[in-house]
């Protein structure tokens, strides 16, 4: 994730996953996390999102809002989680659970969880060592599996979880003497790793590197019930300079001599990245056809696209031909990092979003869910209303693609900073209603059958009525989510319930509900017709 250096890490990091000036990169952060970052301030509870008001005929079920609302949770250098590298398992789980609680309360429906920061693992792996940010020492078992826990807890809260990988980053050159585990690629296959300035990088031109990265990704896809896989903007490294301020070229001359076959080196490097992206998309779907594959590249493909845009040339400098990936449909969603405001013409959020969503770039009709820089509310004192304006800008282009959506960076700024400044505003305004993740019809366009639901009414705590729903699929199509909706005083409330659940209890409080509707949704986002209760009174509109 390319971004300005975090204020809370300024004393110990030159940068964290990106750069300060939007036109040029800064170094990747150290893999060894800071020991004593400041304590996160108390979080004010978010404003309770309002239920959908009664805007339709008395017995009409409102249409579902389909929108992706995600947040990145970064683990490299303990940016978002865990806050320190010496916490107990219980403390780590409490922190991660609080972030997930906050995401749910804000009206989000997905988290993008960083599980492979630098050729290491935030989950139990036989292929790569445990990440140092968990215990302070790379390769040390933390005593639990954070990814397994996060998947379960996210689903329990109605949140998708996308596993976020860095495909080629391997660490920092200062780590090579003692900080890297014996099982890290630097020790296990040093022939594949290049020292580039202050960084260690697996060489994308080495076929064995691409094989290793795909093995890691497919291992996660097979063993964990994630909803998507995700890579960000680190392909070839952002350029570094030496002491004489000269650009350092990536040291892949030997690799190029073996595999370049007379192609210009820049074209060969882009072809290496393209080959990996296409392979990732194809092989992930061979294992799980409905799993979403997402990429979050630098927000500008090339300067001048659209006219007037200036900044870093990701096509030429990090060999990321992201427009080609979108044009060829080698992804299910693109999340270009549009970390600029709407108004400045040199890098305008709306100008770039308009370009990315145009048919010339997105003829395949893939999802485009831009990355939104919530961290700049803190770091650059942007007004929080800039965030709501950017969400509204994505909705204004809804006709351009199959869906709207955003992913917010970074997790702690979005969810907890300053007592919840960002989330309170989002929950009060643009995320005041609940949304269901959009459908991806190119993966599967067949909706599940209407579910079978039995409703049992009973007296709950304090005498308030409650309704327990027994949930069953209507056919053999696997249910990924139940969409449960109920009406109280003419207003509808909605909850996503994970598809493995077979029972859900609605507790509306002192005022009893009078309508219930349940849809089944599969992993590709196809939604069934509703099961209606009472059966003769709820009209379908979904």
Automatic annotation (TrEMBL):
Question: Carries keyword Cell wall biogenesis/degradation?
Answer: no
What the entry lists under SUPFAM superfamilies is as follows: (Trans)glycosidases
Q: Name one Pfam family in it.
A: GHL10
Asked if the Swiss-Prot or TrEMBL record annotates the protein with the keyword Ion transport, the reply is: no
Region annotation (Disordered) maps to 20-62
- Spell out the Pro residues composition-biased ranges: 24-56
Q: Which residues form the Glycosyl hydrolase-like domain?
A: 67-378
Q: Where would one find the signal peptide in this protein?
A: 1-19
Q: What keywords does the record list, in alphabetical order?
A: Signal
PROSITE patterns the record matches? PROKAR_LIPOPROTEIN (PS51257)
Q: Which PANTHER family match?
A: GLYCOSYL HYDROLASE DIGH (PTHR43405)
Q: What is this protein called?
A: Glycosyl hydrolase-like 10 domain-containing protein
Q: Show the taxonomic lineage.
A: Bacteria, Pseudomonadati, Gemmatimonadota, Gemmatimonadia, Gemmatimonadales
């Amino acid at each position: 994730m390319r971004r300005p250096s975090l204020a809370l890490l300024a004393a110990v990091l030159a940068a964290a996953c990106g750069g300060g000036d939007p036109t040029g990169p800064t170094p990747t952060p150290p893999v060894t996390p800071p020991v004593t970052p400041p304590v996160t301030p108390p979080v004010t509870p978010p404003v309770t999102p309002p239920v959908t008001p009664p805007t339709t005929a008395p017995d009409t079920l409102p249409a579902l809002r389909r929108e992706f609302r995600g947040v990145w949770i970064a683990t490299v250098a303990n940016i978002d989680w865990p806050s320190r590298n010496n916490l107990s398992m219980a403390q780590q789980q409490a922190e991660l659970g609080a972030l997930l609680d906050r995401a749910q309360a804000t009206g989000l429906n997905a988290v993008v969880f960083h599980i492979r920061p630098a050729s290491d693992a935030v989950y139990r792996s036989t292929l790569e060592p445990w990440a140092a940010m968990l215990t302070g020492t790379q390769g040390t078992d933390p005593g639990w599996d954070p990814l397994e826990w996060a998947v379960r807890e996210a689903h329990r809260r109605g949140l998708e979880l996308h596993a976020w990988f860095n495909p080629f980053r391997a660490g920092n050159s200062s780590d090579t003497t003692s900080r890297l585990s014996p099982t890290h690629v630097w020790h296990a296959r040093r022939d594949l790793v290049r020292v580039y300035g202050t960084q260690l990088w697996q060489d994308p031109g080495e076929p064995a590197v691409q094989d290793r990265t795909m093995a890691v990704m497919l291992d996660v896809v097979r063993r964990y019930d994630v909803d998507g896989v995700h890579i960000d903007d680190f392909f070839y490294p952002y350029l570094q300079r030496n002491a004489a301020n000269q650009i350092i070229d990536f040291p892949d001359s030997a690799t190029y001599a073996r595999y370049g076959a007379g192609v210009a080196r820049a074209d060969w490097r882009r072809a290496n990245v393209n080959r990996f992206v296409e392979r990732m998309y194809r092989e992930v779907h061979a294992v799980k056809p409905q799993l979403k594959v997402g990429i979050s590249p630098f927000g500008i493909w090339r300067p001048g696209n659209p006219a007037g845009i200036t900044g870093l040339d990701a096509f030429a400098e990090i060999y990321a031909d992201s427009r080609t990936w979108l044009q060829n449909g080698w992804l299910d969603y693109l999340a270009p990092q549009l970390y600029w405001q709407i108004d400045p013409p040199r890098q305008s959020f709306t100008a770039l979003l308009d370009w990315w969503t145009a048919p010339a770039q997105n003829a395949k009709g893939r999802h485009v869910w831009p990355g939104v820089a919530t961290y700049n509310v803190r770091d650059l004192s942007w007004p929080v209303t800039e965030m709501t304006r950017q969400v509204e800008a994505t909705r204004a282009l809804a006709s351009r693609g199959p869906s709207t959506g955003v992913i917010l960076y970074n997790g702690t700024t979005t969810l907890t900073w300053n007592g919840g400044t960002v989330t309170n505003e989002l929950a009060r305004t643009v995320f005041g209603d609940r949304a269901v993740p959009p459908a991806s019809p190119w993966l599967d366009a067949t909706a599940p059958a209407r579910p079978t639901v039995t409703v049992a009414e009973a007296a709950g705590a304090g005498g308030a009525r409650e309704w327990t729903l027994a949930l069953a699929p209507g056919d053999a199509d696997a249910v990924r989510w139940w969409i449960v909706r109920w009406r109280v005083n003419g207003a509808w409330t909605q909850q996503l319930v994970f598809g493995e659940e077979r029972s859900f209890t609605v507790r509306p409080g002192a005022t009893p509900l009078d309508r219930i509707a349940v849809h089944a949704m599969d992993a590709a986002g196809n939604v069934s017709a509703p099961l209606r209760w009472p059966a003769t009174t709820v009209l379908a509109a979904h």
